[in-house]
Amino acid sequence: MDFPQGTAEPSFDVIIAGCGPTGAMLAAELRLHGVRVLVLEKETEPASYVRIVGLHVRSLELMAMRGLLDRLLEHGRRRPAGGFFAAINKPPPEGLDSAHAFLLGIPQPVVVRVLEEHAIALGAQVRRGGALAGFEQDDEGVTIELADGERLRSRYLVGCDGSRSTVRKLLGVGFPGEPSRNETLMGELEVGVPPEEIAARVSEVRETDQRFMLGPAGVGVYRVVVPVAGVSQDRADPSLEDFRQQLRAIAGTDFGVHSPRWLSRFGDATRLAERYRVGRVLLAGDAAHIHPPTGGQGLNLGVQDAFNLGWKLAAQIRGWAPETLLDTYQAERHPVAEDVLDSTRAQMELLSTEPGPRAVRRLLTELMDFDEVNRYLIEKITAIDIRYDFGEGPDLLGRRLRDIDLNQGHLYGLLHSGRGLLLDRIEHLTVGGWSDRVDYLADPAAVLDVPCLLLRPDGHVAWIGNNQQDLNHHLTHWFGNPTQ
């Protein structure tokens, strides 16, 4: 694809390919810092099917930090924060370290709509029917060509365009891992047999196959999840007859399924991009990592990518980013994705119907009766266990801070602007020349076991201490040079 020579002034600071949860979240985070953003979505209309997803604890915290949680709670159902790991039915551990210790079951289109509306309200532009076909980057920016031949200019490009990411492929970034070996059919359909008959048969099948599910998804509608051996060649959406045949093969009956709301299939491919950034082009969400949906971590992982990247990319564009700040996006998020991929690999093994994995599953089920084991696994899946490597220091350093009580209300209510925050319990410190990037709050009564701490815009603790000189060093490390 031939691109014109020259470096025309960019019309946008960032162009985002893909307006799913990751792309919409990233657009909103960038707009909090005045970055000019265009989101390109190749689909002309939002998805017609309503897939229910689960927002885990850490994602709920992120939404609370930006004032979005109440809007999402209106459309979802709270469920206990337990029983996620390989669908092993255990209660949630007591006293999870969060003010939002539950799972929110919510239609994915609602999540996308809320995040997109939030981004647009902040000033982001969203263009539907705009499919990216090619790009070329230089020292000043990225020239992007759309499928209709239109060319756009931006300082940065971020691929949030899913597992078959055009951006990743054109960028030439490797996507190593394991291809799909098996598939799962998923859909929402009406059924033709009584509920008690369904419940009895489902209970019997799940004694040996935990991947099978058939449960209520609304009035007269059931969500059906049924495993398939092998992988289809055309990867097209399954038909109603495909569901009937596979239900008969797995459960001995097709339950009289009819009138589907939506039907889809997904594989168990597990892949991780070798790099999250090449020059002025970055990857986030499913464009950077894919894995089976066991444990419900995919959407959450992508939204958390966007939350980590947004303020860093904005800092780069606004001109105050320390030299290595943007590099910390891959340094922090790539290991997190590696851990999620390993977790889903383990869970898929535990869902196998083979005798060996079933024996391991029975053993792990017993071990999860120990609170430490159950807590460890739930904190891993809900992402509240993440600790970025910020060097030596107290255990809280590098971790996210829960929504603690303050004299001024709740902590997360003070983070809606996407700025850093110095929480000063000794009332002797100052943010000085960083006040255009970092807020200051003196609160001796804050419920903390440390004297003072510095929060990044993503809610992770960047510094703990009581010395102004040491604080200034860390302010410079994360927020650049002070304004004179």
TrEMBL record:
Cofactors: FAD
Entry keyword set: FAD, Flavoprotein, Monooxygenase, Oxidoreductase
Pfam family, one: Rng_hyd_C
FAD-binding domain residues: 12-343
A single MF term (Gene Ontology): oxidoreductase activity, acting on paired donors, with incorporation or reduction of molecular oxygen, NAD(P)H as one donor, and incorporation of one atom of oxygen
NCBIfam families named in the record: rif_monoox (NF033145)
Protein name: Rifampin monooxygenase
Species of the source: Kribbella pittospori
Protein encoded by which gene: rox
